[in-house]
Amino acid sequence: MSAFQTNHSVSRLWIKQPLACFTANELDASAGIVIENQRIVEVLAQGQEPSSPVDEVFDAKNLVVLPGLINTHHHFYQTLTRAWAPVVNVPLFPWLQNLYPVWARLTPEALSLATQVAMAELLLSGCTTAADHHYLFPTGMEDAIDVQVEVVRQLGMRAMLTRGSMSLGEDEGGLPPRHTVQDGDTILVDSQRLIRQYHEREEGAQIQIALAPCSPFSVTRDIMIDSAKLAEQEDVRLHTHLAETLDEEAFCLKMFGLRTVDYLDSVGWLSDRTWLAHGIHFNDDEIRRLGQAGTGICHCPVSNMRLASGICPTLDLIEAGAPLGLGVDGSASNDASNLMYEARQALYLQRLKYGAERITPKTVLGWATKGSASVLGRNDIGDIAPGKQADLAFFSLDELRFSGSHDPISALLLCGADQAEHVMVAGQWRVKHRQILGLDINELIAKHSACAKGLINAR
Ligand code: ZN
Predict the structure, then answer these.
(1) How far is the CA of 396 from the centre of ligand 1 (A)?
(2) Which single residue of 236, 301, 362, 383 could bond 349 by disulfide (Cβ 3.0 to 4.6 Å)?
């Protein structure tokens, strides 16, 4: 049972007459939204009133309402290594090789702080569901995902926590140092334990688990094959990085004699159970195959620009049938965990590829909500419609940067909205007036930044 499902008596809340409301199907919601417990039960068109009495009315006349944003790729632990001088100006492979030894010193306390920071930052940007890809399990970090579960519950967000893995050390031709990789049996036993302990299957799930071998250059073929089998047996999703850089493509050709999508296919991953981070370097035939399989893609525009990796062919993938969502990627290659900021960057980067007429603010907000939900295999979140979970982000345009703007939805991205005024997850307020309820942000910053300094300076 989801932590959000309570036995309280039914309470009805009317979010009345928002300034504007974004829905996937352009529903008229000008009279507002009615919420009952954790679900949206009515969307009211102009002139309509709730069908039966409500317990509470929330005046939204100065607020733009979006479905809670959904982030489909991150590495929360990397908030500890943002803007680290030695890797500020390098591409992916040297970036990773410099960072692995630092990350190998991670502790459970550090991961807990890093997870709190990443999730808090996301939540304040209007994000209600976040996926994390955690693949570091050095000695002492065996309970990494358990540590993250605790933080998710504290903050009251939803999360798709992926049990990542690395199994191909430098000595075997991989990229990561030997002491950061695990053997296949250890990975699989822990994966199964986490699924059975934490994965929620019902509508409104708060916590889900997926399996996520890190990337072609850090895992063995065997762990890819075995993870796919276990995911099918346990009915959970699969996630990995793919086609991020040309270095990676060259690695796959040399190591496996295959291009990236052929490699994915050869290990049993070309399916609708899988979603991929980045998905940049595909040819036309590969795009067609990914679309046909229904494999999801997480577009990470800022990370792709920061590491100069390339531009994801978003519209071609969608036209081929692939679900597409957004992700901020890890904070060492972004270095922000702000999903509104990410959506704005997606709008501009994708306009360079596809033109201003085809990439609109609504297109991109659709990717950040319903698109991301389908990438995570969910249809109960990511939209404002009767029956959906009451995950909502409210934005105020009462700020200098919006002064003189006209269309409220476009203004959010074009004028650069970066913080939600209020955020609700499963019908419960988690952010009010830009403050996370029950979290002392200053104390968190003090602890997290001290921890980040310690991690870099330790030898
Ligand atoms: Zn990543």
Answers:
(1) 31
(2) 301
pTM: 0.97
Q: How far does residue 113's CA lie from ligand 1's centre (Å)?
A: 19
Token couple for 397: 């345009």
d(CA 130, CA 340) in angstroms, rounded, equals 13
62: phi then psi, degrees, rounded to nearest 5: -105, 15
Residue 99 vs residues 87, 129, 406, 449: alpha-carbon distances, Å? 8, 27, 45, 17
Distance (angstroms) between ligand 1 centre and the Cα of 41 equals 36
Long-range contacts from 283-290, C-beta under 8 angstroms, 24+ separation: 283/259, 284/316, 286/243, 286/259, 286/260, 286/261, 287/313, 287/316, 287/317, 287/320, 287/322, 288/320, 289/261, 289/265, 290/261, 290/317, 290/320, 290/322
Helix axes 184-198, 221-234, angle to 10 degrees: 20
Q: Measured in angstroms, how far is the CA atom of residue 333 from the centroid of ligand 1?
A: 8
Q: For residue 69, what are the CA distances in angstroms to 47, 76, 370, 393?
A: 28, 17, 9, 7
Whether residue 9 is predicted with pLDDT greater than 80 in this model: the reply is no
Q: How far is the CA of 441 from the centre of ligand 1 (A)?
A: 26
| DSSP 8-state class, residue 369 | I
Architecture of domain 3-68+381-436: Roll (2.30)
Helices (H) and strands (E) in the chain, counts: 15, 18
Gap from CA of 329 to ligand 1 centroid (Å): 5
Phi-psi region of 146 (alpha: psi -120 to 50; beta: other; left: phi over 0): alpha
Nearest to 58 by CA among 12, 5, 102, 103: 12
State in Å: Cα 445 to ligand 1 middle: 23
- 18/63 Cα distance (integer angstroms): 6
Whole-number Å distance, alpha carbon 284 to ligand 1 midpoint, is 24
Position 8 confidence tier, pLDDT thresholds 50, 70, 90: low
Provide the residue ranges of all domains of the chain, joining segments of one domain with +: 3-68+381-436, 69-375
pLDDT mean across residues, the chain: 96
Fold of 69-375: TIM Barrel (3.20.20)
Angstrom CA distances, 407 to 219, 368, 393, 402, 435, stand at 48, 19, 18, 10, 26
Q: How far is the CA of 412 from the centre of ligand 1 (A)?
A: 26
User: In whole angstroms, how far apart are CA 149 and each of 146, 157, 161, 166?
Assistant: 5, 10, 8, 21
Query: What residues flank ion ligand 1 with Cβ within 5 A?
Result: 277, 329
CA–centroid distance, 298 to ligand 1, in Å, is 10
**Nearest-angstrom CA–CA distance, 144 and 136:** 8
Q: Per the structure block, which two tokens stand in for 380?
A: 């109960």
